[in-house]
Amino acid sequence: MTSVLDIIEKGTTYLESKGIDEARRNMQLLVTHQLGCSKVELYMQFDRLMAEDELTPLREKLKRRGSGEPLQHILGSVEFFRRDFKTDARALIPRPETEELASIILNLDLPASLNLLDMGTGSGVLGLTLAAELGGKCHCATLADVSHDALVLAEENKNLLGLGRIELLWSDLFSKLEDRKFHLIVANLPYISDADEQTLSSEVQRDPPLALYGGKDGLDILREFIKQAPLHLHPGGMIALEIGYDQAEAVETMLGDNEFIDIKTHNDLSGVARFPIAKLPGSPPPIEPAAESAELQTDTNQQSQSADYS
Q: Strands of 273-279's sheet, edge to edge?
């Protein structure tokens, strides 16, 4: 039998030979997942000998990671804003930048009670995190997506967190939202241009294409979303987006051309203008108590489909 430390060393060398970034961290996470322990507990078990029934599944996971399969898919979970979420090939792997967007949103001057829409919710991490962090301030949260598979994953995460007042809705942008209005709309929509597809890492290319690509300039979906959004915001309602590294100027122009004011794009931790925040003129109306509902409908039954925003 081989010790935990020896396995980590050998696995790290293997992953490095396959060009995997942060090879040692990856290997440590694979071992902690296999042993069902924390990273601190792992350090205390370096001399522990691993049995063959532990090594066999670990070797398979190591092989998958060496082939470029994302670590999050292998582990089946990702930490986001101090919570664990399920993640797999059904939706975009949550990125650290989106955690930054959540922090920015939570520091905004939000209404005392609000209805939230997370458009293009994917695995649900942004909308669910905001609903959880806002607590009673969030009257209800609607998580919408064009992907049926993503919505099923989002529902699994909703149940994992034990959150109520969450509506899951299949919708091609606002197509199923009719005349509904919200106080806050957040969105991390596809923004990668067709030309940039070949520059993506093999791991990113494992994400669903429907969650990645936004047309020739990457802005097709954002363009249509921003055009429609004012019809679904209360006066004074706010919009918060995550966009591509070189899209801030174009997105700010689109927002200004579609009634939005107080437009500001916040930088991410790398200094990239990444998160446009804007609002509509006016003051939001209070939520009527009669509209409150403890149980919200889940509509994820329509099939996933690609949308044409040309």
A: 261-267, 273-279, 233-241, 182-187, 114-119, 138-145, 166-170, 298-299
Report the candidate in 240, 132, 265 with the shortest Cα–Cα distance to residue 186.
240
DSSP 79: E
Check if the beta carbon of residue 188 is closer than 8 Å to that of residue 101: yes
Residue 302 has a pLDDT of 46
In this predicted structure, what is the pLDDT of residue 287?
Answer: 73
Non-local CB neighbours of 78 within 8 Å, separated by 6+ positions: 72, 84, 85, 87, 93, 94, 125
Q: Residue length, the chain? A: 310
Ranges of the chain with pLDDT below 50: 290-296, 302-310
Q: How crowded is residue 70: how many other Cβ atoms within 10 Å of its Cβ? A: 20
Contact residues for 281 (Cβ-Cβ < 8 A; gap 6+): 235, 236, 259, 261
Domains along the sequence of the chain with CATH: 2-68 (1.10.8.10), 77-299 (3.40.50.150)
What is the C-alpha to C-alpha distance for residues 238 and 281, in angstroms, rounded to an integer?
10
Question: 70, 93 in Cβ contact below 8 A?
Answer: yes
What is the DSSP secondary-structure string of 8-72? HHHHHHHHHHTT-TTHHHHHHHHHHHHHT--HHHHHTTTTPEEPHHHHHHHHHHHHHHHTT--HH
Quick one: pLDDT at residue 298? 56
Please calculate the CA angle 207-210-213 and round it to the nearest 5 degrees.
90
Q: What are phi and psi of 134, to 5 degrees?
A: -75, -25
The DSSP 8-state label assigned to residue 3 in this structure reads E
Angle at 106 between CA 105 and CA 111, to 5 degrees: 90
HEC string of 208-246? Answer: CHHHCECCCCCCHHHHHHHHHHHHHEEEEEEEEECCCCC
Q: Which pLDDT score is estimated for 299?
A: 60
